[in-house]
Design a protein that fits this description.
Elements: E1 5-8, H1 9-14, H2 16-24, E2 29-33, E3 36-40, H3 61-64, E4 68-73, E5 76-81
Parallel strand pairs: 1-2
Antiparallel strand pairs: 2-3, 4-5
Length: 86
């Protein structure tokens, strides 16, 4: 026996969670509006992207921790890495 759930748009507004649960279980869910039928089905999650190895090599661990700043001098901006000395 083939079981299918049918909803009108007004019904699915109030029962969206139920319709999604049915689709998760593999039950075909049909939503009908003005004579046109729409099919609701669950899709498996996309596979996670694997992280590629970074092309940037961090030489100063303080920079990797965010301990850096820009200094504005007469020649323009200068990068200053490492911990600030006070």
């Amino acid at each position: 026996m083939y079981i299918m759930k049918r909803y009108t748009v007004s019904q699915v507004r109030g029962r969206l969670a139920e319709a999604l649960d049915q689709a998760d279980r593999g039950v075909p869910v049909i939503i009908e509006r003005k004579g046109i039928r729409y099919s609701l089905k669950a899709e498996p999650p996309a596979t996670a992207r694997r992280w590629k190895k970074s092309v940037i090599e961090i030489l100063d661990p303080a920079v990797a921790e965010g301990q850096w700043t820009w200094d504005l001098g007469p020649d323009g901006l200068r990068f200053r890495g490492g911990r600030s000395r006070r």
